[in-house]
Amino acid sequence: MTGRTATLPLAPGVVAEHAHAERLLNAYVRECVMGGGSRPDEPAGAEPANASPAAASTPGQATGLAKEAVAGGVSEPSQPPEAATASAEGMAWRASQLLTGDAALAAMPERLRAAWRRAPRSAPAQPELAGVPLVVTLPHSGTAIAGTLLRWSAMGHHRYGEAWWAIRCASSAADGGGAASREAESDAARRLDSARELADVLLGELARREGDNDAAAAAHAAMLERIDSSIRNMRSYLEAAAGETLPLPALHGAERVRRAEQGVRLGHPFHPAPKSSQGFTAADRAAYAPELGAAFVLHYFAVAPALLREMRLDEPAASPEPEDVRAAARERLAPAQQGYALLPAHPWQAAYLLERPAVRRLIAAGRLVALGALGAPVYPTSSVRTVWQPQAAHMLKLPLHVRLTHFIRTNPAEHLTRALEASRVLAALAQAHPYGDSFVILLEDAGRSLDPAALEATGEVRQHDGGRTMTASGGRAAASHEAGAGAIGGGSLRGEGGEADPAERTGEAAQPGDAAEARALEADFGVVYRRNPARATPAGELADRDSPMVVAALLEPDAADGQAPLGLFVRQAAGARGTAADEAFAAQWLARYAELALAPLLWLFAARGVSLEAHAQNALIALEDGWPARFFVRDLEGASISVARDRGQSGLRADHPAMYADAEAWQRFEYYVLVNHFGHLVAVLAEALEADERRLWRTVYETVRTSAPLRAADAGLADAFFGRPCWAAKANLVSAFRRRGETPDYVAVPNPLATVEVAAASAERASSFSGPAGPAQGKEAGGRAVHGKAADPASEPSTSGTGGANLAVSADPDDRGPADAAPADAALADAVQADAAQADAALAEGVEADPASAGSLFHVPPPVAARLSAAKREDPARPVCAYVYDLTQLRAHAARLIATLPDGCELFYAVKANAEAPILRALAGIVHGFETASAGEIAKVRAAAGAAVPILYGGPVKTDEALAAALERGVRHIHVEGPLELRRLDRLAAARGLVAPVLLRVNVGDALPDATLVMAGSRSQFGIDECRLPELAELARTLEHVRIEGFHLHSLSNNLSCDTHLELLESYCARARQWMAVFGLETATLNAGGGIGVNYRDAGAQFDWDGFVRGLAERIAPLRPPGLRLVFECGRYIAAASGYYAAEVIDVKTNHGSHYALLRGGTHHFRLPASWQHSHPFRILPVEAWPYPFARPELRRCRITLAGELCTPKDALARDVPVERVRVGDIAVFPYAGAYGWAISHHDFLSHPHPRQLYLES
After folding, report:
1. The dihedral of CA 1076, 1081, 1082, 1083: what is its sign?
2. Element (H, E) at 531
3. Domain boundaries, the chain
4. How many Cα atoms within 13 Å fall on the side-chain side of residue 1131?
5. Rg, C-alpha atoms of the chain
6. Burial of 458 (0-12, 13-18, 19+ CB in 10 A)
7. DSSP 3-state assignment of 585?
8. Low complexity: which segments have biased composition (predicted)?
9. Beta strand 143-151 pairing with 164-169
């Protein structure tokens, strides 16, 4: 058994085998190794008789049990030694059942251990996980599965290697399977050559766990039959797809929609038999399987009005059938039957129905007419039974009496009723939600079927009128939802559907008689009319934003090239924006997707308690040039409504099947949206772009947490979801084995933020980031890299005496750490120790899930803490409010930047970032010069740095007085913004007998990559339109007192991607070559502006300066025209990390459930967070002194907003961020305040005292 799921160019049979092996093992690991739970048929809290980690019967039970597991209720957690810490730690692994690395090798027989090292390995997805030996022990059967782990996923979408062995172990369930007794027998290793063999071993374990009785043996055999069916089908689907040559992103319009709907060939990633179909013959599959590109004409029945049961969203309404169908039907109906209603049927279903005696009697009596095939061909979609036609008004959800995966897919009355009632509730919300047409709920306009009461009255429907005999495991079973994913909670409407196979019932007795047969016919004729999300024009035209693709199709490897279309689309989007398809762009793309999909879905729950089954097969996304444009959600029959949040607005009774307790509706959302949909999407995106899965989950969280409409509806909802330690996941393997039918089992899986993040953050604290040019990767102890880069143990910083918290020495040799800091007094030592202990405690509790809080790499260096401590001692009655600047760090950082620049490049400091005289003096003699934007800044530079330092002068508005000052103070270049300014400058220079050196600021015409601020490439007031440069060249030739010496192109601000910056420079150099020719320049200066940013959210994900300067030498130097000098003018990137803003906590309070810390300071001192609308990172520096005789107010382990002293609710520096503890008198310290802090603030608003300006020198 070889190959990998993501490598479709392999033989289809190989891929099908490996896909099933991967799904089987991932399901087993999730449900029986990782997932907490107890047997659903045992009393709560009871230990299962076989001591197995069985699944829980409800999400609530599973979540509670998983919490106990994480807290120590199971054996000590054990992470895979070679696996990435960020995705493995924090999970409650049972160490005796999952072994990796050396522990796995030790568990293998000697013969296999030797063979293992010779076994071929496929190319790994992540080098740090390549070839990690893996052993999963099966304690009840005394065996183990040995294989290779290639990629570890935080949400369980693991990737495995090429081969598997079954190992017969000496230990078994009888001796507990402990490590001491787990000695593998020397000759007990068997190569598993197929997914079926692997399934046989795993199902054997489940059978023994269930009691090893006849029922378990029958379940084992039935499951193998379904798995065989699924493998055969998948192989045939992949063989048929081999002829596809164009990947999905190359298709558009109706063909894009069809290809996506019919391209889900591998199926549910945790289902043991995702493509099984029992009831379809090979000929049936060829005719009707969407995976084979099927198209067919529907059959229609005409039914007497007295037998019709119809529900409509709007009354009255026209017939939902297409006009061509109605016209053809009229021609085939007798005059007396012209008023009959039409019921469409799948061709297979029509043949099935025509064999039923009751149907034949109804036809003979003239109450039902079989009209045959009518209308245009339709395409079956990913659910097999729902069909789509590009010009039709509706998609049709049809009954199909075939077992697909677990269930026979019919449409019982309760499903139709629930779908239409959900549509009625959602119709109002579809208009009221604040997300516009980017979020679309696909309403279901009508439902039709036969009326069972009317059927009974005819006397034509009789007991024991059965249909055709099904294959083994067939029989009448419940219809499920669109993709076979049922509701959480049990009960006939809250489970997987209506009537189940008798073998899968949970105690419900069969209901014999005419009534039961009438209800069966009702389910077998029922149809739902769903609005068509991709309705083409009569000419067949369909724009990309109106061509949504089922999300599940984007997450599977495309037959054309073996790559997941999701990765291809994201790369397309990056290319369209001129940026690199790296982790940073993956996060941008995902943020947009979450903004379109997750935020509105959460808003529906927050505003009205509506939880939609928006799993990956019910979710559709329209992409324009790869970028998310519109999100659609379908299949409303699975909608649930929280009674508590609905508050009677829906008009449904509290006991209505669609109404749920708030916790249960919440948990349904958890599984369908977070685990199934986003869990899969984030895992595939991380693998496709080699990104960190945990970082991408943080992007999801940050996006919804900051969604304004969601915060207005329920400010704490996002944190409530993402703060839970575990989420509910359906146990597909165990449920299928147990034939749970309507009441599937659930297990709890770790929330990748609430559990994994804590451990990862602990590891990352081993190194700190002291400036934008510092190390971008955190390191683990022992020399293992957190994000895949090798770490040198010798370079690990010492944290002795700091509590292991945030005071580690930076890897930058020029930066100071604890060992180099100035001597600290006892108060400082206490404060630093308390700060470290507070950070550790918060991390251990999992409180700090936000990088703006104390649990990130942002920190307060000892010299800064010491200076603040001294300020408090100097004047205890005066609340601390100060800027602290570390000039030693500033100089070292700037010197490092200058030293690494290649020849032909210069770095100027942009004075606008911070024009304080000590800052300018510290940088003078290090940077190549200063860039200014006013005559005032020119004066400040000359006063601080002297008359010889080079100065650049620019800005969109320059008065004659300012231009004259620039000329008189001898600036190197004036950046001219237009022809009028050029004429004025020529006149002023002539009056002084000078020739003014000029760079022309150009506003380039192309679209630019994403950054925080875009200053060119779009409509803006800056610079000269690129197309007008020839005109400027002609003008310049007529002016004697200006000399064009080059060009200025400041296009982006706060860009975090070095690849984006290099791509921008490549474009600039190509333009400069052309422009030099236009202006006749043999030598020139190209000022590329600044724009290199600082990541205020994640200190470990900063701009890669080392990669940038390598790119300047390797990529840009060969493109630079001879005689062209490159100049950069950076402000933020040079100065931000050297500054800290500190403000004392004056009060804490709780208003209407929200917590606040009020500071002596605010946005009038530190405007940056309000200007950029972010929560700025901070640390709480504890101050133990308390001068008052009454109790000291404090807030503990909660989310707070840090607000200032202004009379406006907008005065907040960080909003709704978690802290372990904050007390009145403590000091909030905000790092990265050295640029655009005090300089851009409205200092005198309300006339509060200014902060102190404190400067540190070594």
Report:
1. negative
2. strand 527-531
3. 12-241, 765-887+1138-1256, 950-1130
4. 22
5. 34
6. middle
7. helix
8. 43-60, 472-485
9. antiparallel
Give residue for tokens 């190992």: 167
Dig out the tokens for 548 from the structure: 């949504």
What is the rounded end-to-end Cα distance, in angstroms, of the chain? 64
Q: Which two tokens stand for residue 980?
A: 């009028």
In terms of DSSP H, where are the helices of 812-861?
826-845
From residue 1182, alpha-carbon distances to 497, 640, 839, 1179 in Å are: 57, 47, 11, 9
Q: Is 1190 exposed, middle or buried (0-12, 13-18, 19+ CB in 10 A)?
A: exposed
> Residue 1248 has which token pair?
């509060």
Distance CA 1228, CA 1200 (A): 12
- 6-57: pLDDT as tens digits: 444 568 888 899 999 999 999 999 998 876 433 223 222 223 222 233 333 3
pLDDT digits (tens, 9 = 90+) for 422-445: 898 888 887 778 888 899 999 999
Q: CB neighbours (10 Å) of residue 111? A: 13
Return the pLDDT at 545.
92
Distances (CA, A) of 1147 to 876, 1155, 1224: 16, 11, 5
Question: DSSP for 435-494?
Answer: TGGGEEE--EEEEEEE-HHHHHHHT---TT---SPP-TT-S------TTS---SS-STTT
**What distance in Å separates the CA atoms of residue 134 and residue 535, rounded to the nearest whole number?**
49
| Contact criterion met (CB below 8 Å) for 1195 and 1221 | yes
Contact call for residues 975 and 1002 (beta carbons, < 8 A): no
Residues 6 or more apart whose CB falls under 8 angstroms from that of 500 comprise: 407, 477, 478, 508, 741, 742
- Coil vs helix vs strand at 968: helix
Residue 1233 near residue 1166 (C-beta atoms within 8 A): yes
The contacts of residue 708 (CB under 8 Å, 6+ apart) are none
Q: Which phi and psi angles does 693 have, rounded to 5°?
A: -60, -40
Q: Please state, in angstroms and rounded to a whole number, the distance separating the CA atoms of residues 780 and 782.
A: 6
Residue 695's identity, in one-letter code, is R
The rounded distance, in Å, linking the Cα atoms of 995 and 990 is 7
Task: Specify which residues 621 forms β-bridges with.
Answer: 549, 631
Cis preceding-peptide flag for 316 (omega within 30 of 0) = yes
Write out pLDDT tens, residues 1193-1244.
999 988 899 999 888 888 898 988 888 899 999 999 999 999 998 878 888 7
DSSP secondary structure code for residue 179 in this structure: G
Q: Is the pTM higher than 0.90?
A: no
Reported as a single tens digit per residue, the pLDDT across 54-89 is 333 333 333 333 333 223 322 222 233 233 222 333
- Asked if 222 and 274 count as a contact pair (C-beta separation under 8 A), the reply is no
881 is catalytic: no
Return the axis-axis angle of helices 693-705 and 679-688, rounded to nearest 10°.
130
Beta strands across the sheet bearing 299-303: 341-345, 299-303, 368-373
Catalytic residue among 726, 905, 1198, 1207: 1207
Instruction: Write out the two tokens for 1205.
Output: 């002293």
| Longest pairwise C-alpha distance within the chain | 112
Confidence of residue 1054 (pLDDT cuts 50, 70, 90): confident
CA 66 vs CA 54, 55, 674, 964: distances in Å: 12, 11, 17, 73
Q: Please, are residues 964 and 943 in contact by the beta-carbon 8 Å criterion?
A: no
Report the CATH superfamily, name and number, of domain 950-1130.
Alanine racemase (3.20.20.10)
Tens digits of residue pLDDT in 329-370: 999 999 999 999 999 999 999 999 999 999 999 999 999 999
CATH superfamily, domain at 765-887+1138-1256? Lyase, Ornithine Decarboxylase; Chain A, domain 1 (2.40.37.10)
Rounded to the nearest 5°, which phi and psi values hold at 774? -75, -175
- Average pLDDT of the segment spanning 993-1006: 89
Question: Among residues of the chain, what percentage have pLDDT more than 90?
Answer: 45
